[in-house]
Design brief:
With about 425 residues, the chain is of the alpha/beta class. It has three domains: about 80 residues, Winged helix-like DNA-binding domain superfamily/Winged helix DNA-binding domain (Arc Repressor Mutant, subunit A, Orthogonal Bundle); about 140 residues, ATPase, nucleotide binding domain (Nucleotidyltransferase, domain 5), CATH 3.30.420; about 180 residues, Nucleotidyltransferase, domain 5. It has 13 helices and 16 strands. Strands 6-5-4-7-10-16 form a six-stranded mixed sheet, with helices on both faces. The longest helix is centred in the last third of the chain and has 25 residues. Bound molecules: zinc ion. The site of zinc ion (ZN) has 6 residues, from loops. Zinc ion binds next to loops.
Length: about 425
């Protein structure tokens, strides 16, 4: 039924079809209330009749999408009400983050928590075919090791460097992954794993992760924010009104060539001072090499280069942490340039927060965050009306993989998901009542 002789035999995946708008509305309301909601509250929140809420919640309970979780005794003389929550262990999603220096595969439950994760070949060190084999083995290994029923895996999401053609599931020509030109990654992974597969940019996936998993219990809900994703390159994920802003072809957020310093390092676009170049580990490591702080990176094989640069960058951050003033100055200059770019993007969208994260964030946050905070609080145009806060992502280096899994969850929950899911149509029938 998967349409490929190479696909492993697998029973139909329980991908929930939310063609029913009201069902999506109920699921979304439950999703946003981790403490649980009663049927009465659901009817009040959604404007649906008690009978509709009762029918829909019965269906969602039968499908293990929600679960009954305790009772609420209303003040006064009301009847105790059963609380409904998402059924965390009812379904799962696999998230794959592809970065030049590391590939991460994570298994998420239905609320977006990581059940288990594993790292495998970095994309810069593997051909697409070899990487698909490694990712497939890693995904199957995670499902087997955790004892999760593969039929409860809703699908597999991929977060990859842009630009992408998410509609066609194709990685175009990511500037940081030479050799990865027009790779039909979504189809390759669908064939290899049998799961429905969705593909989006790393920065967009990271923003989605923050939207799903972001600061729980914080003072304000993150509904309007920019996620600045710092890895081998820089990208932005834009969230407006609680929805990912994707652009005409899902390539919104390519801010790398925003000019922030006339005297900045030369960028591969030919200009000087692009914000992407200003916080690219490759350039910062080269600067430290020129200053005699670090050995200069080798000029040999590009594949080895990316990992070598990642290690040298770790050394540079360690030097700054150990009190080396010149190392600290290199990072601070980069932080000021990034801050200028962040302020421009936040002015453009009038957001309340800019969230910073990605593979290199944990190494630079101690130096970067105070500078980013100060710049956003003191230079954004909207500061007279509301503060713009710089936040570090709490999701760590796995934010891309978590976001990739959230792409699948978003498909199950959203009334208008931002991306196409390959294989979806094949699996729908199994869940229809
Ligand atoms: Zn540039």
């Amino acid at each position: 039924m998967e349409g490929s002789r190479n696909a492993p035999a697998r029973p139909g995946t329980n991908l929930p079809r939310i063609a029913d708008f009201n069902q999506a509305v109920i699921l979304n309301a439950v999703r946003h209330a981790p403490e649980g909601l009663s049927r009465v509250e659901l009817a009040e929140l959604t404007g649906l009749s008690a009978q509709s809420v009762s029918n829909i919640t019965r269906r969602l309970l039968d499908r293990d999408l929600i679960t009954e979780a305790g009772t609420l005794v209303p003040a006064g003389r009301g009847k105790p009400r059963t609380l409904l929550r998402l059924h965390a262990g009812g379904h799962f999603a696999i998230g794959v983050h592809i970065d030049p220096t590391v590939t991460t595969v994570a298994l998420l439950d239905l609320v977006g928590d990581v059940v288990a994760s594993v790292r495998t070949l970095p994309a810069s060190a593997a051909s697409p075919t070899r990487l698909v084999g490694a990712v497939t083995a890693a995904a199957e290994g995670l499902v087997a090791a955790t004892g999760v029923d593969a039929r409860r895996v809703l699908g597999l999401g991929i977060a990859a460097p842009g630009p992408l053609d998410p509609g066609a599931g194709v990685v175009l020509e990511p500037p940081l992954l030479p050799g990865w030109t027009h790779v039909g990654l979504r189809a390759l992974l669908h064939e290899a794993t049998g799961y429905p597969v969705v593909l989006h940019k790393d920065a967009a996936a990271a923003a989605l992760a923050e939207l799903w998993r972001g600061p729980r219990g914080s003072a304000f809900a993150l509904e309007d924010f920019v996620f600045l994703y710092l890895g081998t390159g820089l990208g932005a994920g834009l969230v407006v009104g609680g929805e990912l802003l994707s652009g005409t072809t899902n390539n919104a957020g390519e801010i790398g060539h925003l000019m922030v310093a006339a005297d900045g390092p030369r960028c591969n676009c030919g200009q000087r001072g692009c914000v992407g170049a200003a916080c690219m580990p490759r350039n910062l490591v080269a600067e430290a090499g020129d200053a005699g702080l670090l050995p200069r990176p080798g000029t040999g094989d590009r594949e080895i280069d990316d990992r070598e640069i990642d290690e040298l960058f770790t050394d540079l951050c360690a030097l700054a942490a150990d009190g080396s003033a010149p190392a600290r100055r290199i990072l601070e200059a980069s932080a000021f340039r990034l801050a200028r770019g962040a302020a421009t993007v936040s002015n453009l969208l009038d957001v309340r927060a800019v969230v910073f994260g990605g593979p290199i964030w944990d190494r630079i946050s101690a130096v970067f965050l105070p500078i980013l905070r100060d710049t956003l609080l003191t230079t954004t145009e909207a500061r007279q009306v509301h503060p713009v806060t710089a936040l570090g992502s709490s999701l760590g280096a796995d934010v891309g993989a978590i976001g990739a899994g959230c792409l699948v969850l978003e498909h199950a929950f959203s009334t208008r998901p931002a991306t196409l899911l390959l294989g979806q149509e094949l699996e729908m029938a199994t869940l229809e009542p």
